Amino acid sequence: MQRGKDLSDFPIQYIKGVGPQRVKLLSRLGINTVKDALYYLPYRYEDRSNLKKISDLIYNNIEAIAGKVISAEVIRLPGKNLKIFELTVNDGSGLLKGKWFNQPFMKKNFKVGQEVILCGTVKRNPYWGIGFEMDNPEYEILNNTVETPNMNRLQQSSDDSLIHTNRVVPVYKVTSGLSVRQIRSIMFNLIHSHLEDVTDPIPEEILKRNGLPTLSESLSCVHFPDKETDIRALNSGVSDFHRRLSFDELFMLELGLALIKKGKVIEKGIAFKTGGRLLKKLIEILPFRLTKSQEQVFNEILEDMKRPHPMNRLIQGDVGCGKTVVALMAMAVAAECGYQSALMVPTEILAEQHYINIHSIVEDLGLKICLLTGSKKDRPLDKISSGDIDIIVGTHALIQEGVIFKNLGLVVIDEQHRFGVMQRALLRKKGFNPDVLVMTATPIPRTLALTVYGDLDYSVIDELPPNRMPVETLLFSSKQKDTIYSLIRKEIKKGRQVYVVYPIIEESEKTDLRSAIMGKNAFEKFFSDFTVGLIHGRIKAEEREKIMASFKHGEIDLLVCTTVIEVGVDVPNATLMLIIHAERFGLSQLHQLRGRVGRSSHLSSCLLISYEPYGEDARRRLDIMVRSNDGFRIAEEDLNIRGHGEFFGTRQSGMPDLRIANIIRDAALLSQARKEAFSLIDKDPHLKSSPLLRKTLETSWKGKIELFKTG
Predict the structure, then answer these.
(1) pTM for this predicted structure
(2) Residue 157 region by backbone torsions, left for phi larger than 0, else alpha for psi between -120 and 50, else beta
(3) Structural domains of the chain sorted by starting position, each given as residue range(s) with its CATH number in brackets
(4) What is the pLDDT of residues 156-177, one digit of tens each?
(5) Of 62, 38, 64, 44, which is closest to residue 232 (Cα–Cα)?
């Protein structure tokens, strides 16, 4: 192999120990090239460096011993189709037997008189209750120059050819047909044959500033650490070598985001100039006063819109803080300047509900609004392309090829954590560098904001509308129905209204979950003197709109529903929510649902109804819901419970994968990587001084380099 050749182009089949069959097995693990293998890290480590005398072994512990083979024989058990290969080892202090079941071929590996190391769980002889044994132990055959068992000399040995014992040993995830031992041997051969081909893309001064080792040293030591390396740091993924590899991933992520942001800053955008006529009228017709926080955030948005460069801003805020109103104010500014606005949401139901919530206000302003979703038949594409429609509310249908805007000036994305960088870029391309405003349904942790939304400026609405009472959250067992029904009856008799949320629409043989349809029937029988309604995603949009209008006008006392009401029409008179099977909902979803009540000065409650048994994660979710109404704290807990991988979901669309880094564990490292990345792009926006870094960046971002040019 030529030195300096791209290891991602070098097939794994040319590594010692990898034949045609193993190529197929390794491919199952995602290992097709040398680079794939180098970054296929151990998932844990075992310390097998402490060799003990056989006489000092402790039963049930994982131990390692060194000694001389005194016998090696295959035993057939009478009456059973079982062959056991037994290896007896003597270290001068006692005897130990290693046993391998139905592996008679193992006898070929050993000879009487050889020096070996065995490592495994120490057991008693099952028949005699004494002696020392190991089943299927890891083994190492020492160099024949070792003459006699000498514990001290073996413990001090630095023989690197010992891969499986007498060291800190890497343990890899495997697939059927491929053992940990085999992968470990392949990795050892690979490290020793191709480590010098590794090229380091990170500038040396950045490594020095952050106290990080070289890439080749990190890859070598993360696979085969020295005996002195702290095994707890290795198993926690925070050794110096893991930190270096995590830094690389975070740095590439932040470098791409820095380039995207830099590209937007230098792009020519729309400098909105407005007298504020529509904005003033909008504020006058709102049925409430804006909070100071809403005013402050809108002023930040307005300053962005006046600049000649595209706005790219994230609005964060808790449930019910009024993000949509602030976005509507920005749309009014765009409309007065003759530009269209698009509001993109992830689901059709959410699109419908946004449309219902704002269309009357928009029409009072003299503007035209339409709904555009994938299933909607009457799609007013001509009116959109002619500029006859001012505000278009829709799903991902907005970014389809057939949708042409006349003069798109503002894009508002109700992120819901489901649209990635690529979707934002596609919608921006529908206009001439329009301003972009992203809203989150629930607050997101700062570490996540630095990754998923790292290319955006962000504002926080940290104030709820006045006279809002905090929602009291209580946890009930499903056996406490009488108490729950009593609370419902009491609330409705006060003239208030109730939501009852179910996880599924109807019963299924695949699950024992209670359903909304079944629940509606039960509540109608139990509360026959009250009006019970039902709403879910299978009901047609027009019918859903009528049901929600009836509920808002007080014609329905108790509304049985699914999560279609997660974001919906404001019903200030709804003061009680029951969530059935609360243990089955995600934390952010529970918090979002709870936000449907507590929208007035009346005391409101959210009752979480749980069905045993459920796991520890569900218990933690329910506990934090009872203890806190703070969306930011809940978001942090959600990230901790679910882990960063699941929390990201499709939000990473178009962005590099984080296979090694963990944004919870590596929060401080993320901040360092972001600081270095943005500093480097400020000095060298085209990375002319680091061509290898530029190439690595393009690979990391899967060739989506156009993002760096168009945003």
Answers:
(1) 0.75
(2) beta
(3) 50-166 (2.40.50.140), 277-461 (3.40.50.300), 472-628 (3.40.50.300)
(4) 333 445 889 888 999 999 999 9
(5) 44
